[in-house]
User: What shape does this take?
Amino acid sequence: MKILYIGSGFVGACSAAVSADSGQEVLVYDIDERKIEMLGSGDRDKIKNCLYEEGLGDLLVRNQERIEFTTNYKKVEKFLDDCDAVLMCLPTPEIGETGESDLKYYFAAAEQLSKSLLRRNKGKQKKYIVIINKSTVPIDMVNRTEEMMNKAGVKNYGVVSNPEFLVEGKAIQGSLHPDRVVIGAWKKEDFEIVRQLYQRFYNSTSVKYIEVNPKEAAAGKLLANYYLFNKLAVCYDVIGRTCETFSDLTFENIRTILTNDPRIGSWGLYNSLYAGGSCFIKDARSLSHQLQIAGQNAVLINETYLANKRQLELFLSRTEKEVGFDWQDKKVTLLGLAFKQDTNDIRNTPSVDIVNFLLDKQVKEINCYDLAATEWFKKVFPESNIIKYFNNELAAINSAEVIIIATDWPQFRELADSLLQKKERPIIMDGRRMLQHRYDDLQKAGFDIIAVGSPFIKGSK
Ligand SMILES: NC(=O)c1ccc[n+]([C@@H]2O[C@H](COP(=O)([O-])OP(=O)(O)OC[C@H]3O[C@@H](n4cnc5c(N)ncnc54)[C@H](O)[C@@H]3O)[C@@H](O)[C@H]2O)c1
Assistant: This one.
């Protein structure tokens, strides 16, 4: 099959790489020249620099003959002549703090597409083509896309909803071996075309292939993300807070009690300073917005959003409240800039809010380190007299008065020995409980520790 991808971000690039690996002929179009240049370079390092996803470079290099990246729309027009499916992988962020999905990227791409679809087959539009929404969109989006295409005079097409469930950091693994593939369509012929496209999943016994209508598919994605987001909020704002409030409750022990109930499960029961990333927040907000427009209240969804915000604010305020610490003119080290491990994505990362908080408090230095996201973070906060970037965590913690751990990169777990060897005793703010297995040693050596899910741990020297 010939497949066109519009949008080459985490979803588009990873899904396109898997399509090419399944034997499809794939063209990927994006307006971002740098991204297209890097992803199409055939160079694993450049690909990783662009999208830090394990296995993406290997797949793209291995399938080079079947996948092309372009910013040239003329190529797209030519490709559309006998193209079977167009996968829409465009961003759908929130408009301000309204909850409403910003569909301008989607509609800009769809409008351009509609004009090219009209010109297919010398204007005869002979070949049937399916437009597949992979973006996370409002529940009635397929109807809106159809309206737009019909108004433009596009014929011989179908619109399908195929929400993406990949997890950043494991996107390739997740796209090669998804738990489920969800296809929402109104027409039988659309289901059939998509079955061909996803033959490897349709025929697989380990993948749940779910066919529903397009509204159910879109709603299922929003609800799944809300459910997961809510689990995180419960973990931080209820379970974590309980452990912070009462003495002698170790978060990990409480976690063990809870997760051994299969009805509770273990996903999401890791305490953290914030649930960031590009999806959970905006998808929960979009669901809330759609419910409220329809006249419902969305109190629980809104409270989940607020609980997440509250978590970061409470965490950052603890140093002043519990230690009486004055941030002014202090040297602070920030470990972790990506919103979580295994990604260079900084969308909604708590580290942006942390840096803004520290600047507000007029600290002297913010010494930052991240394994993958530094280049992207520098675009938000260029290097300056105050903000500095380091190549490893040990250099970054030198002379720190406070160390904030914001990302769960596994190597941060090994930091305790280096800290114990130092003369200085910076306050440790562990936003991920990365040093939990060494809190006792660190406390005995005189470190004050403020950790999510623990009451204040006063250094004993
Ligand atoms: N990132 C995830 O983990 C994830 C998971 C599931 C679903 N989703 C959803 O998938 C969608 C895409 O997410 P993403 O993370 O890949 O976004 P992204 O921002 O990484 O990528 C989107 C790409 O679209 C490109 N683009 C914008 N306008 C364009 C246009 N007119 N023509 C061509 N390209 C254009 C951008 O340059 C960008 O490269 C969103 O709706 C998101 O909610 C994301």
In short: The pocket of nicotinamide-adenine-dinucleotide is lined by residues 6-12, 29-32, 35, 89-92, 105, 108-109, 134-136, 164, 166, 168, 278-279 (CB under 6 Å).
